[in-house]
Amino acid sequence: MAENQPKRVVVAIDGPAGAGKSTIAKALAERLGFTYIDTGAMYRAVALWAVRQSVDFADPHRMEQLALAAAIELAPGRIQLNGEDVTAAIRTPEVSSGASKIAVIPGVRRAMVAKQREIGQKVSVVMEGRDIGTVVFPDADLKVFLDASVEERVRRRLLESRAKGVETSESVLAAQMKERDQRDSTRADAPLAQAPDAVYLDSTHLSEDEVAEAILKMLRARVTNGKEYQSHE
Ligand code: DC
User: Fold this and answer.
1) CA end-to-end span of the chain, whole Å?
2) Rounded Cα gap, residues 209 and 233, in angstroms
3) What is the CB < 6 Å shell around ligand 1?
4) Residue nearest atom 1 in ligand 1 by C-alpha distance
5) Rounded to two decimals, what is the model's pTM?
6) Cα gap 82→4, rounded to integer Å
7) Position 125 pLDDT exceeds 50
8) What confidence category does residue 230 fall into, taking pLDDT thresholds of 50, 70 and 90?
């Protein structure tokens, strides 16, 4: 990249389910003019395809084939799988749990990471997931580990479900979240972990705006230093 070209920036946001990653990453990307990448949605799309094809989540060979063959297109807040909009279809409890199960398979992760790097090498991104700061972009310009208490994370998911008209009980949601957190943070390949150089941010008592402002402040101070960065516009 020529020296006078604006810099391409990668903001990595990792953390457990319900910590507010999607909301914050989307808001930040909008404000910065960067591309928002929800990597969890990519794992979910592959899990959805497996459900539809009756492929066993535990079959590493077949699952890797699906992950490699999946044509995944992301637009802000929307996702397409093989040309079909699956934004709503990937948000069921079966797909949530399936995504976490297939995410333990190294071949699936390799396929997803390759797609994620391809995007982040072209444009400035706010990318959220579990392994962005540790594996996908270890050289990200800013890494945030976004967390919240388990009670607050369950409360947020409950509100989200209700807003969609889905009635679930708090105890069922808490159990599902606990199981997923446990699997995501103990798998052998790229477990959910805070990168040593990531900033830990607890959003339990913060509003969406407060979290977004805190991250923007860090980005200005550390990355842009008053200079221009490359937005996708
Ligand atoms: O962010 P999410 O809850 O939509 O992600 C769904 C699952 O996908 C999550 O339980 C673990 C997996 N995942 C992952 O292993 N690595 C990522 N970078 C993103 C998600």
Assistant:
1) 18
2) 23
3) 17, 39-41, 43-44, 99-100, 103, 129-131, 180, 184
4) 40
5) 0.93
6) 39
7) yes
8) low
